[in-house]
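Protein data:
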Amino acid sequence: MDRERGKAEKEPNTMPHTKPAYTDEFKREVLAHMASAGQSLNQTATHFGVSTNSLREWR
């Protein structure tokens, strides 16, 4: 039996998976806002459009 039969051919991934570049100033601003507003990680990430993992790395 041919295992490859019936499988759709995958298109090559043309978009590289890179992290967005944030300036140190932006990172400090986001962390300062989170501290002063008393917001959670999730709330701050949503407000600024960044991932919660990014915020964890910046702390």
